Amino acid sequence: MTPFAIIALVLILARAITEVWLSRLNQRHVHAHASEVPTAFQGIIDEATYRRSVDYTLAKSRFGDIANLFDAVLLIAVLFSGVLPWTFGSFTASFGASIWAMAGLLFVVGVALSILGLPFAWYAQFKLEGRFGFNTSTMRTWVFDRVKGFLLALLLGYPLLALVLKLIDWAGAVWWLWAAAVVIAFQLLLLLVAPAIIMPLFNKFTPLPQGTLRERLFALAQRTDFPTRSIELMDGSKRSRHSNAFFTGFGRFRKIVLFDTLVAQLTEPELESVLAHEIGHYKKRHVLKLLGVSIAGVVAGFAAIAWLARQQWFYRAFGFEHQAGFAAANVVPALLLFGLLAGTIIFWLSPFINSWSRRFEYEADAFARAAMGEAQSMVHALRKLSEKNLSNLIPHPLYSGFYYSHPTLLERERALQ
Fold it and tell me: Is residue 208 part of a domain?
C-alpha cells in the first residue's frame, strides 16, 4: 500500500473505532440511569415512558453500531480491493469514455452502493421503528418511495453529472469553478421548485383548515414580519408517528409545513411556540448562513477534486492509472474517490458543525420566547415532543457534543428559563 492509502485506511478505521467508542460510552451512560427517572425529569415524564425511551435509545444505538461497522467494511472493501479500477476499466471497454458513459459509471456506482444499504433501511423502518410503535408505512409506500427517489436521481442527477463532466472538456483547467457554479445553481433551483413539484410526489399537502389555530399562526407570522402565503399540513403519519415542523422555499414559494402528527400532539399555544422557533431560524438568518456554508463546501470540494485529479499518488493509492490532461475520463476516478472519502472527512468536522447548529437552536428558542412573551409554551412543547418521540433524555455529554445538532431537552429548558 502507498503512504496515502495507509493514511486513508487509518482515518476510516479511526472513524469506525470512534463511532463504536462513543456509542458504547453513551449506552453505558444510559444504562447507569435506567433504573429510575432522573431527578430533573421527575414529574415531567412517567416511569413507563422513560423506560421505553431507554429501550428505544439502546436499540437504535446497537443497530447503529452494526450499520456503521458494515459501512466501514464496505468502504474499505470498495476502496482497497481493486473493484473500482476493474469496474472503471470494464465500463469504459464496454461503453467507451464518452461524457454520457462516464456519467453513467458514476450513477451506477452510486445506485449499487445505495442498494447495499436497503436492508438496513428496511430493518430500521419496519422492525426497529415498528417495535416501538412509530412505523405507519406500508411495504408498498416504502418501495414506491425508493422507486420515485431513483427516478428523480435518474432524471435530475444523471444529466447534472453529464453536464459537470462536459465542463471539463469545455473549460479546461478552470472546469471546477464552472462545475461548482452549475451545482450551486442547481441546488438553489431545487430549493425553489421542491416545495411545489418534488415534495408533493412523496407527501400530501393540504392548507391548514380555517379555525383558531390558523388564525393564531398567521397572526404570529404577521407579528414577526415573516412573509408566507400558506400554512400547510403534511401527512407525515403516512410513514411515521414522529413529528416535525419546518418552512421551505423562498419568496413566493415559501410555505410553513406542519406534520399532522405534530398538530395532534400539541396544544395551540405549543404549536405557536414551535412555529415561532422556526421563524426564529429565518429571522436570525440561519438558513442563509447554512446555505453560505453549503456553497463554500461545494466550491472547496470541486477545488479539491480538481487538485487531486492531477496527483499521480492519489490515483495509484487506489489502483487507478493516472492520465494527464483535462478529459472527463481522467477526472472521473477523482470524482468517484472523493465522493467515497468525503464522509470520513466530514465525520471529523461534525463536532464543530454541530456546535454551530446548537448555537442556532438556542438563538431560535430565544426568539420564540420573545415572540410569545413567555417560555412555558415552548418548554411544554419540547417536553411533549421528547416524550412522544422517546428521545434520549440523558445522553453522555461527549456523545451529544459530537453528534447532536440540537441541544438536549435539559439544556434547552435551562436556556429558556
Answer: no
Name the amino acid, one letter, at 88.
Answer: F
Task: For residue 196, give the nearest of 254, 272, 115 by alpha carbon.
Answer: 254
Measured CA to CA, the distance from residue 103 to residue 38 in angstroms comes to 54
Predicted local confidence at residue 325, as pLDDT: 67
Nearest C-alpha neighbor of 57 from the set 19, 20, 28: 28
Residue 253's pLDDT band (cuts 50, 70, 90): low
Name every residue whose Cβ is closer than 8 Å to that of residue 377 and which is 6 or more positions away in sequence.
269, 270, 272, 273
How far is C-alpha 36 from the geometric centre of its chain's CA atoms? Answer: 33
Is residue 337 assigned to a domain?
Answer: yes
What average pLDDT does the structure give for the chain?
92
pLDDT at position 247 over 80:
no
Tell me the C-alpha to C-alpha distance, in Å, between residue 203 and each of 51, 191, 194, 240.
33, 17, 12, 12
The predicted structure's pLDDT at residue 250 = 67
- Quick one: cell of 366? 430565544
Q: Which three cell numbers stand for residue 69?
A: 461497522
Q: Which residue has the cell 433524555?
A: 393
Q: Which three cell numbers stand for residue 282?
A: 429565518
121 has pLDDT over 90: yes
Q: Three-class SS of residue 63?
A: helix
Prediction pTM value = 0.89
Residue 249 lies in a domain: no
Contact, 21 vs 68, CB < 8 A?
Answer: no
The strand ranges marked E within 235-346 are: 245-248, 255-259
Cell of 36: 429510575
Per DSSP, which regions of 91-140 are E strands?
A: none
Active site residues: 278, 365
Tell me whether residue 170 is exposed, middle or buried, using C-beta atoms within 10 angstroms of its C-beta: 0 to 12, 13 to 18, 19 or more: exposed
Give the distance, in angstroms, between the CA of residue 141 and the centroid of all CA atoms in the same chain: 21
- Residue range of the domain that includes 136: 3-201+285-416
Q: Are 266 and 377 in contact (CB under 8 A)?
A: no
Does residue 326 fall inside a structural domain? yes
70-85 pLDDT tens trace: 999 999 999 999 999 9
Average of per-residue pLDDT across 267-293: 93
The total of structural domains in the chain comes to 1
Reported as a single tens digit per residue, the pLDDT across 321-352 is 877 767 788 899 999 999 999 999 999 999 99
The distance in angstroms from the start CA to the end CA of the chain is 56
